[in-house]
């Protein structure tokens, strides 16, 4: 399913074949947590801005509208009218970050809904059942997300629990994929590496889950408060133990600079709410750096957001107009800004793939990494 086309030092150029289409890697997955991109974008918009993979969340869709509703509507692809690959996050992170009251047991997690307080149980089998109802292309294993920093003893116990849960996830998804009424009998499973910032725990856990021969592997538990140097160190520590013939996914990361640095360290898949969330508040990513649309200097600026951008927003609207929309609190401001930021991320990934194809990734990275991280 995954073909490693070319390797430039640790950086990888690949192709991942799925039942819903081919994914060219490295790739950024656009986050539609509740089956929608915040900022009023549709699946048709995602196609126009070059999105390859949409990401939705098990926890949120289980609570609302309910995974059984999505199943009865033909699965997430038909529900959203999106025909390319979808990855569903397992819900583990949301259980641990949103549920104020939770009780972690070997069988799973008991918690209260952040919406209405009702009592819910989710374990590996339940997460797989929900994701099977959603019919996503790739299901993520149910894992425990620990706080950072975390005591080493608890981090060890947690990472080993995640391994045991992963084994149960694999067994349950294998069973679900054989059922006659399964929405997507070709649903794939990615496992998640945990272990906090402890090198030995990360390595041991990665070695254990690599033995399970999964469809892909993710590094979780990062971008949650540690420094960027710590994050890059964890990637460098884990990468040698990740299977070469399977895609690698760095969960919840990150800025354009983070992506360039992580690609250089061997990562293939990325996701982050940052481009859409920041756009909704007027922060714009461009080829010249990061813009704040509330700045008065854009009040009479006729230029597009990015003079080097070919997105629908930059082709049709000026900085002055978009700043006016933000000041007037018009919903269109968020929509136009989100379109641009997601196009920028998807186009950055295209540029990265082209640079890898042409054996010039280092020069490409060096030419833009400082620029992309600076504030204009």
UniProtKB/TrEMBL annotation:
GO terms for cellular component: cytosol. Substrate binds at residues 89-93, 143, 194, 221. Residues 252-258 are annotated as: RNA binding. One of its GO terms (biological process) is tRNA queuosine(34) biosynthetic process. InterPro entries: ArchSynthase1/Queuine_TRR, TGT, TGT-like_sf, tRNA_ribo_trans-like. Pathway: tRNA modification; tRNA-queuosine biosynthesis. Signal peptide: none annotated. It is an enzyme of class 2 (transferase). Its EC number is 2.4.2.29. It catalyses: 7-aminomethyl-7-carbaguanine + guanosine(34) in tRNA = 7-aminomethyl-7-carbaguanosine(34) in tRNA + guanine. Zn(2+) binds at residues 309, 311, 314, 340. One of its GO terms (molecular function) is metal ion binding. It comes from the Bacteria. Transmembrane segments: none annotated. Keywords: Glycosyltransferase, Metal-binding, Queuosine biosynthesis, Transferase, tRNA processing, Zinc. Binds 1 zinc ion per subunit. Residues 10-368 form the tRNA-guanine(15) transglycosylase-like domain. The active site is at 89 (proton acceptor), 271 (nucleophile). Homodimer. Within each dimer, one monomer is responsible for RNA recognition and catalysis, while the other monomer binds to the replacement base PreQ1. Catalyzes the base-exchange of a guanine (G) residue with the queuine precursor 7-aminomethyl-7-deazaguanine (PreQ1) at position 34 (anticodon wobble position) in tRNAs with GU(N) anticodons (tRNA-Asp, -Asn, -His and -Tyr). Catalysis occurs through a double-displacement mechanism. The nucleophile active site attacks the C1' of nucleotide 34 to detach the guanine base from the RNA, forming a covalent enzyme-RNA intermediate. The proton acceptor active site deprotonates the incoming PreQ1, allowing a nucleophilic attack on the C1' of the ribose to form the product. Belongs to the queuine tRNA-ribosyltransferase family. PANTHER family: QUEUINE TRNA-RIBOSYLTRANSFERASE (PTHR46499). This is Queuine tRNA-ribosyltransferase. The gene is tgt.
